[in-house]
C-alpha cells in the first residue's frame, strides 16, 4: 500500500486465498483480452462456487452467455438462460441471445409490452438496449428511440454508451429521418473522451 504522505509498506499476500471478486476480475480480464473460451470456463466455474449468492451466480452466467455468443455458440448461450437464478437477469440474457440470433420479431413478441422500469435498475439499461435494437431493425423508430434513451439513462459503461448512441443516431437518421436529433446523438459520440473507436 502506498500512502499519500510518502510512507509505504508492502504487505504479503497469500496467493492461495481467493474470493468471488478476485476470480470475477480475472475472468473479466480474459474476456477483455478476447480470450472467450477461457473466460467462459472461468465464469461457469465461478457460477458453481458454493459460496456465491444468487446474484453473483446470475452475473457470472450472464457473462458466460456473452462469451458463448462471441464464439457463436448459440445453443450454449441459450442453455445459460435456464441456469440463471434471478429472473430479471435471465430475461436480459435471453433478450441478448435473441439479438445475437437476429430474432428481432421474436424479441418484440415476447418483451415488446414489458415495462422495463419494473426491472432492477442494474438490468434496465441492457434490456432497453436489446429491445431498442430490435425496434430499430424492425423500423419502429419512435419505440426504438424511447428504449435507447432509457438504455442510455441506465448505462454507465462508456463502451456500451457509445454503442447505444450510435444506434440512436442511426435510428434517428435512417428511420425517423430527423437529422437534427441524429446530430445530437452523433455529437455526444464526438465529444466523448473515451471508447469512441
> By helix and strand content, what is the structural category?
mainly alpha
Beta fraction? under 5%
Query: Overall pLDDT, averaged?
Result: 91
Rounded Rg: 19 Å
Low-confidence stretches: none
Summed up, the helix count is 10
Number of strands: 0
What's the helical proportion of residues? 55-70%
Distance between the termini: 35 Å
Tell me, briefly, the overall form: globular
Main sheet specs? none
Order of helices and strands: HHHHHHHHHH
Describe the structure.
- This protein has 197 residues and is mainly α.
- It has ten helices and no strands.
- The chain has helices spanning 20-32, 36-47, 54-70, 74-81, 87-100, 104-111, 121-137, 141-153, 158-175, 179-191.
- α3 runs antiparallel to α4 (74-81), α4 runs antiparallel to α5 and α6 packs across α7.
- The mean pLDDT is 91.
Can you describe this structure in just a few lines?
With 197 residues, the protein is mainly alpha-helical. 68% of the residues lie in helices and 0% in strands.
Defining traits:
10 helices, 0% strand, 68% helix, 197 residues
Strand-helix topology:
Elements: H1 20-32, H2 36-47, H3 54-70, H4 74-81, H5 87-100, H6 104-111, H7 121-137, H8 141-153, H9 158-175, H10 179-191
Helix pairs in contact: 1-2, 1-3, 2-3, 3-4, 3-5, 4-5, 5-7, 6-7, 7-8, 8-9, 9-10
Amino acid at each position: 500500500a502506498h500512502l499519500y504522505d510518502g510512507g509505504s509498506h508492502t504487505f504479503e499476500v497469500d496467493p492461495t486465498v481467493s474470493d468471488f471478486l478476485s476470480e470475477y476480475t480475472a475472468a473479466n480480464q480474459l474476456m477483455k483480452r478476447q480470450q472467450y473460451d477461457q473466460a467462459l470456463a472461468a465464469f461457469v466455474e465461478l457460477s458453481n462456487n458454493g459460496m456465491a449468492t444468487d446474484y453473483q451466480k446470475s452475473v457470472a452466467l450472464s457473462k458466460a452467455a456473452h462469451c458463448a455468443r462471441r464464439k457463436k455458440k448459440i445453443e450454449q448461450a441459450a442453455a445459460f438462460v435456464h441456469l440463471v437464478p434471478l429472473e430479471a437477469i435471465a430475461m436480459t440474457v435471453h433478450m441478448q441471445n435473441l439479438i445475437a440470433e437476429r430474432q428481432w420479431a421474436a424479441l418484440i413478441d415476447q418483451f415488446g409490452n414489458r415495462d422495463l422500469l419494473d426491472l432492477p435498475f442494474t438490468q434496465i439499461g441492457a434490456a432497453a438496449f436489446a429491445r431498442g435494437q430490435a425496434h430499430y431493425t424492425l423500423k419502429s423508430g419512435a419505440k426504438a428511440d424511447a428504449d435507447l434513451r432509457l438504455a442510455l439513462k441506465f448505462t454507465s459503461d462508456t463502451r456500451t454508451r457509445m454503442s447505444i448512441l450510435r444506434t440512436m443516431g442511426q435510428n434517428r437518421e435512417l428511420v425517423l429521418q430527423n437529422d437534427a436529433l441524429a446530430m445530437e446523438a452523433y455529437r455526444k459520440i464526438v465529444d466523448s473522451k473515451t471508447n469512441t473507436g
